[in-house]
Design goal:
Blueprint lengths: L4 E5 L5 H10 L3 E7 L2 H10 L4 E4 L18 E4 L14 H29 L2 E5 L12 H20 L4 E7 L5 H10 L11 H12 L9 E4 L6
Parallel strand pairs: 1-2, 1-4, 2-3, 4-5, 5-6, 6-7
Helix pairs in contact: 1-6, 3-4
Length: about 230
């Protein structure tokens, strides 16, 4: 039996998901999940042995899953954000945000539980600082991240054979952050934010904790750079 571990990463086409794929490539067989097939193919071309899984996470079913008897690592890195006040945010935005950030996370985890249990696997939820503190204008996103946090806490209790880690990064220099800054009407200054590689390295540290250790919550914030 192969001793190489398998990791499935959603949102793998860019940002933290892509950075984590590169970080895990030397030690894991990778399944790269996401919507953008061209971006997934380009990343897989860099990472020998990686396979792509083009998927619409909001409608995934058991028939859509890659064939996995065992899954050592499941990373939920896909997410969406739409800023706006409560007064200006229609129900459609709330529903769309929850479908990607919460419902898809719960359903994919549920479908993959047999493979995760077989490997005594590790589930990583890439959350946000907004999952700890809610600010004006961030209602639908923060609420979805609080819900994602609750999901991880419940999963950890219900599945004691798994390890479940929630990561709460501050602002990261990614395409999503560029979009957020546009929505805020502000400039995108990458040097003010965390690098995706730094977040990926922190996740790897959680994954590599000894078998007696369970790093449940991990908070990262940008450091001022001179």
């Amino acid at each position: 039996m192969s001793t190489v571990k398998t990791a499935l990463i959603t949102g793998a086409s860019r940002g933290v998901g892509a950075a984590l794929a590169r970080a895990l490539a030397p030690t894991h067989r990778l399944v790269l999940g996401g919507r953008d097939r061209a971006a997934l193919d380009a990343l897989a071309a860099e990472l020998p042995g990686a396979t792509v899984w083009p998927v619409e996470l909001t409608s995934v079913t058991a028939a859509d899953l890659p064939e996995l008897d065992r899954l050592d690592v499941l990373v939920h890195s896909a997410g969406v954000v739409r800023l706006g006040s409560v007064a200006d945010t229609p129900a459609r935005v709330w529903r769309d945000t929850y479908e990607v950030n919460v419902v898809a996370v719960a359903e994919l985890t549920r479908l993959l539980l047999p493979a995760l249990r077989a490997a005594s696997g590790h589930v990583v939820c890439v959350n946000s600082g907004a999952g700890l503190n809610a600010n004006a204008g961030w209602g639908s996103y923060a609420a979805s991240k609080f819900a994602m946090r609750a999901f991880a806490d419940v999963l950890r209790q219900e599945e004691p054979g798994l390890r479940v880690t929630t990561v709460y990064p501050g602002r990261i220099a990614t395409d999503m952050q560029r979009s957020v800054r546009e929505q805020e009407g502000e400039e995108f200054e990458p040097s003010n934010y965390l690098e995706a590689d730094s977040v990926a390295r922190a996740i790897v540290a959680a994954l590599e904790a000894g078998p007696d250790a369970h790093l449940t919550d991990l908070t990262l914030r940008p450091r001022p750079r001179s």
